[in-house]
Design a protein that fits this description.
The complex is a heterodimer of chains A (about 110) and B (about 120). Chain A is an all-beta fold. Chain A contains no helices and 11 strands. In chain A, the strands form 2 sheets. In chain A, strands 2, 4, 5, 6, 9, 10 and 11 form a 7-stranded mixed β-sheet that branches. In chain A, strands 1-3-8-7 form a 4-stranded antiparallel β-sheet, with no helix packed on it. Chain A is globular, with a radius of gyration of 13 Å. Chain B has no helices and 12 strands. Chain B is globular and about 45 Å long. In chain B, strands 2, 5, 6, 10, 11 and 12 form a 6-stranded mixed β-sheet that branches. A 4-stranded antiparallel β-sheet of chain B has the order 3-9-8-7, with no helix packed on it. With about 120 residues, chain B is mostly beta strands. Classes of the chains: A mainly beta (about 110), B mainly beta (about 120). The interface between A and B is medium-sized, with 25 and 23 residues.
Amino acid sequence: EPEVTQTPSHQVTQMGQEVILRCVPISNHLYFYWYRQILGQKVEFLVSFYNNEISEKSEIFDDQFSVERPDGSNFTLKIRSTKLEDSAMYFCASSGGRLEAFFGQGTRLTVV
Amino acid sequence: AQSVTQPDIHITVSEGASLELRCNYSYGATPYLFWYVQSPGQGLQLLLKYFSGDTLVQGIKGFEAEFKRSQSSFNLRKPSVHWSDAAEYFCAVGAPNTGFQKLVFGTGTRLLVSP
């Protein structure tokens, strides 16, 4: 069964460092998303991406964040200068239409 | 804007007993509705979804949910809970006709299964 794959599963970084979280969406999907879940809180939408551009972003997704689909298969989330409050589980998702999103296993980001 | 309320933070159910997890949503029309399950350290797995049509939807692992427009609810049910069902359950809503399927999640309900 096709699945969304995220790497790494866990990333520890120092405050102020740049991190790149990687995702391989399901191959024939066209819509891509990043969500995050701070420990003990609900899952929050960050950004959606379609046709090589951002289609919607939340207030959380400020100038420190960027997304890219560099090679037609990977979908990345970059945080330019990490803060302690960026510590969270980050989920990538993809969908083939506009309806059902499939989620990856997540990357746990710990900023120290 | 859409919002989702899951009023129960924790629920404990005996193995073999029935389960109902509550979900209420706020949206001006009929939204798309989803239930996801998250096992410890795992990602989000889709249990079932409602887009239109029959208001009782069947999902994986023996789960079902019923959309009740009059109550703005989409409660998740299972007739007989297994120990492996212990997990966190999230209700989510998506807005039709918005072009891209951003999901708004509830705060989740943690299900504990007692022997």
